[in-house]
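Try this one yourself first.
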């Protein structure tokens, strides 16, 4: 594929789908993003490469950013009164029973906050050899994404749940999508948190950190967690939303996107989320066991480092740099600062890129071209673009 030196050249390539800030309507925005979604993985890599080069963000992140600037017709959302201060301005992070957790008197900690607020980064500042860190989002990524051996390597707590009373939740995406929400999503998080509480009591030699928005979404009563350590990120909704967009859209684009499509949260849920989070902040904020700290920039630096590695994979792909991809993979595998999840993200993306590169070079050697998509056509792979 030809290399381009400016954005206009890349935008004219019918085999790519790039969202620029020149888009002025939601229908055009959705049309381009649907085209992007239907691209082959190789075309997605080129699209993301040029989007990052000329716009500073991948195509999916540009979709979120541009969409936020465009007001849908007849939405009515602009008429709602949002609490602007908490929407924009971050609050200090809350630490309840931090000393007790550090000393081991309390061996389980729950981390709360908006999606993208930096919960996982907060948790990683506490990680050690005897700490088991669980991200509740991963409860939704089971049979299609983790073998039993991989589950055990990720977390013994995770493994014990899915081989015990949570065995019914160890299913694939297709089966999960056929189950009513009240029989799967509304139960798996509650059942797992209850299981984790009991498991931690029986394994006092270890510490456990559990983070996720699902804690405050499915447990209305904060007092349920009064006997445990609770940390709450104070990062504002807008800052969290930008972080979440960057993080989610850099995941494995082929296998993990179903989670965002199924459980993605829009700005309309802000008031509900903020009310629930504030209920927890109010309950734990008055406790003598609670201290507050201003957020540091370390979380942003760590998150940015992961995103840069993921962007680097597409850059190496476009430049046919197999050694560069292998180097990123080795660096991730050897990095002790990376969580198991981020390590898995980077390594899997490297393996996918190497596979795509072999396929792409094979096509090039056979003088085959990737079939371009006509930007003026009405559908892509059976999907309507309007």
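Now uncover the answer:
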């Amino acid at each position: 594929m030809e290399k381009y030196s400016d954005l206009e050249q890349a935008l004219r390539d019918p085999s790519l789908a790039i969202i620029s800030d020149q888009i002025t309507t939601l229908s055009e925005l959705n049309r381009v993003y649907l085209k992007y979604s239907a691209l082959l993985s190789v075309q997605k890599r080129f699209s993301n490469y040029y989007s990052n080069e000329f716009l500073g963000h991948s195509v999916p992140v540009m979709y979120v950013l541009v969409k936020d600037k465009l007001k849908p017709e007849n939405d009515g959302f602009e008429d709602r009164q949002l609490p602007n201060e908490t929407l924009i301005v971050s609050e200090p992070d809350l630490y309840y029973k931090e000393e007790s957790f550090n000393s081991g008197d309390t061996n389980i900690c729950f981390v709360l906050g908006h999606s993208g607020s930096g919960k996982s980064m907060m948790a990683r500042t506490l990680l050690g050899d005897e700490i088991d860190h669980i991200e509740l989002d991963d409860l939704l990524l089971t049979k299609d994404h983790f073998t039993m051996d991989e589950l055990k390597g990720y977390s013994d707590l995770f493994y014990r749940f899915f081989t015990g009373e949570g065995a019914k939740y160890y299913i694939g995406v297709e089966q999960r999508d056929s189950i009513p929400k009240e029989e799967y999503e509304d139960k798996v998080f509650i059942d797992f948190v209850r299981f984790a509480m009991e498991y931690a009591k029986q394994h006092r030699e270890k510490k456990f950190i559990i983070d996720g928005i699902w804690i405050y979404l499915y447990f209305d009563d904060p007092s349920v967690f009064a006997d445990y350590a609770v940390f709450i990120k104070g990062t504002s909704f807008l800052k969290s939303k930008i972080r979440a967009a960057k993080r989610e859209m850099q995941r494995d684009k082929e296998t993990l996107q179903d989670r965002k499509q199924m459980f993605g949260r829009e700005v309309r849920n802000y008031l509900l989320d903020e009310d629930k989070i504030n209920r927890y902040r109010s309950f734990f904020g008055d406790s003598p066991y609670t201290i507050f700290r201003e957020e540091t920039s370390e979380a942003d630096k760590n998150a940015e480092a992961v995103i840069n590695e993921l962007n680097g994979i597409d850059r190496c792909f476009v430049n046919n740099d197999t050694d560069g991809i292998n180097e990123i993979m080795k660096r991730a595998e050897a990095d002790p600062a990376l969580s198991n999840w981020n390590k898995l993200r980077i390594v899997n993306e490297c393996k996918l890129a190497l596979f795509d590169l072999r396929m792409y070079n094979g096509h090039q050697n056979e003088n085959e071209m990737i079939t371009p998509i006509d930007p003026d056509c009405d559908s892509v792979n059976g999907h309507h673009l309007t």
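Discussion: The chain is about 50% helix and 10% strand. The domain at 86-296 is CATH 3.40.50 (Rossmann fold).
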